[in-house]
Specification:
Blueprint (H helix, E strand, L loop, with lengths): L1 H80 L14 E2 L14 E2 L9 H18 L12 H10 L5 H14 L3 H5 L3 H8 L5 H18 L8 H4 L7 H11 L9 H9 L8 H9 L7 H14 L27 H5 L35
Antiparallel strand pairs: 1-2
Helix pairs in contact: 3-9, 6-7, 10-12
Cofactor: [4Fe-4S] cluster
Organism: Streptomyces coelicoflavus
Protein name: Endonuclease III
């Protein structure tokens, strides 16, 4: 009995020891699993984040390389294509000379200055610039006068009507025969149209001009006693006579101021930006407001002479222009002095850049410029 009880105690103690060991192992295993899971969690997440960041950076780098590659390819293609297109050399800004002296022999070219710009120009500045231009032109063309040959107001009005759409030189070659055959308004009023047409044929539009000069001669004979009237409102009633012709007659046959707005005058005053108007009557009013009335007739001559000799419509001789520093359109024409000098047109009265000698018919007995016909 004692042996069996002792054996039972021994078995029980062994089971107890084994249970304790098993419990200790299980506890140790749980503790080990907890530590392992705790260690594994951050370690796993961190590499995942790094891997994601790495993938994003790789994508950006790939995109950057792709864009850079495309840009480089485009630049390379542009460089290859560039030699096929020749680029025009950059234009140098035109610089106006202080005063053109190319037209005068033996005078060295003057230093250059930037031309005056009219942008934002005040009314006062415009008036000063316009009047200075007229003063400069008066020095170049001191004897500027109408370039039509005439001996009395009747001849002047007829010659002015004939000057439309032709040159003054052509008119001066035609009128001597006309006035020799028809010296008075009464004679021309009674003329046979076909005979007048034959004389006027060289001036162009000879049929229309014949009708005008015969018509105005009849009007002078019937309405004004054969005399040319000295008032604007009477002159413009004559066939073929507009404001331009009327002011030529008033200013040069009667000494009454007027602005002659012909094609040269219109072109130059717009080129100088005295006005932006295009209608002749509005140009006359705009320019007339810039000058004293007493200057109007001479101003017209100065501008017209300059337009015929230097400031041409297609190829202005900018390099030989005496008012280049005052002209906002400087550079539209030839600026090289030597080349510009070849563009000058030498008409009656000499050439610009020198004191022009007037024709003898324009001088009085003392050798001085004669006053306009009918003045005084």
């Amino acid at each position: 009995m004692k042996k069996s009880s002792a054996s039972k105690e021994t078995a029980a103690s062994r089971k107890a020891v084994a249970g304790e060991k098993t419990a200790a192992k299980e506890a140790a295993a749980k503790e080990t699993e907890g530590k392992t899971s705790a260690a594994k969690t951050p370690a796993t997440k961190a590499p995942a984040k790094k891997a994601a960041a790495g993938k994003t950076a790789a994508k950006k780098a790939a995109a950057g390389k792709t864009a850079a590659g495309k840009t480089a390819a485009k630049e390379a293609a542009a460089k290859k294509a560039a030699p096929l297109k020749r680029q025009a050399p950059a234009k140098k800004p035109a610089v106006a000379p202080k005063k053109a002296t190319a037209a005068v022999k033996g005078v060295a070219p003057a230093k250059t200055v930037a031309p005056t710009s009219p942008r934002g120009e005040s009314r006062t500045a415009l008036v000063r610039r316009a009047r200075r231009i007229d003063r400069e032109l008066a020095e170049v063309y001191p004897y500027a006068h109408p370039e039509l040959d005439f001996e009395n107001p009747f001849q002047l009005v007829v010659a002015t009507v004939l000057s439309a759409q032709t040159t003054d030189l052509r008119v001066n070659q035609t009128t001597p025969a006309l006035f020799a055959k028809y010296p008075t308004p009464e004679d021309l009023a009674a003329a046979v149209p076909e005979e007048v047409e034959e004389i006027l044929r060289p001036t162009g539009f000879f049929r229309a001009k014949t009708k005008s000069v015969i018509g105005l001669s009849k009007a002078l004979t019937e309405d004004f006693g054969g005399e040319v009237p000295g008032r604007l409102e009477d002159l413009v009633k004559l066939p073929g006579v507009g404001r331009k012709t009327a002011f030529v007659v008033l200013g040069n046959a009667f000494g009454r101021p007027g602005i002659t707005v012909d094609t040269h005058f219109q072109r130059l005053v717009r080129r100088w930006r005295w006005t932006e108007e295009t209608d002749p009557d509005k140009i006359e009013a705009a320019v007339g407001a810039l000058f004293p009335k007493s200057d109007w007739t001479d101003l017209s001559h100065h501008v017209i002479w300059h337009g015929r000799r230097i400031c041409h419509a297609r190829k202005p001789a900018c390099g030989a222009c005496p008012i280049a520093p005052l002209c906002p359109a400087y550079g539209e024409g030839e600026t090289d002095p030597e080349k510009a000098k070849k563009l000058l047109k030498y008409e009656k009265g000499g050439f610009p850049g020198q004191r022009l000698k007037p024709p003898q018919s324009y001088l009085d007995a003392g050798g001085k410029p004669a006053p306009p016909l009918g003045a005084g």
